[in-house]
Amino acid sequence: MTTHSTQSAIPIHGESLEYLAFTLGHEEYGVSIQKVQELRGYDAVTHIANAPEFIKGVVNLRGIIVPIIDMRIKFNLGTPTYDQFTVVVILNINNRVVGMVVDSVSDVITLTPEQIKPAPEMGGAVDTNYLVGLGTVDERMLILVDIDRLMSSNEMGLIQQHAA
C-alpha cells in the first residue's frame, strides 16, 4: 500500500483507524475521525458572491468564519436536498476549519489495514487522488476520502479566498 506525504488516513503496521461514515446520494463515504471537530444540523449560510457553486457560503461558528462546502455538488452527485437528516461535518484540516455538507451521518467505523483496498482506477470519471481506498466491513463498503488532499487542492484554495 502506498503512503502519502500528509498525515494520511491509511493505517500502517496493523494499527486500526476510525472513520466517520456518511452518505452522499446512494454511496457511503468515510473520513478520518481525527479530522472531525463536531457535527451540526444544516443552518442557513451567508452566501458569497462569485464563489464556486460547491461553496454554499459561510457561517459564524463561535467567532470563527467557517466556509461550508456541499460535497454532493463537489462530487457531481446531483442536486442536493436539505432536510432534517442533512448534516454539516465540521472538520479541522491543517488548522483550518471547514464545514462539509453531507446527506446523513451513520456511525464511526474502525478499519484495519486488511479491510482497506486501494481505490480502483476510474478512467478519469472520478479523481482517485482524493481517495484513500475502499473500506469493507461485513457487507458495507465505504469510499474513504483523503480529506487533507481534497481540502488542500488548488480548488479548495478558493474557499479560503472567498471566505476571507
Automatic annotation (TrEMBL):
The keyword Cytoplasm applies. InterPro entries: CheW, CheW-like_dom_sf, CheW-lke_dom. Keywords: Cytoplasm. It is found in: Cytoplasm. It comes from the Bacteria. SMART domains: CheW. It holds the Pfam family CheW. SUPFAM superfamilies: CheW-like. Residues 16-156 form the CheW-like domain. The keyword Transit peptide does not apply. This is Chemotaxis protein CheW. It comes from Herminiimonas glaciei.
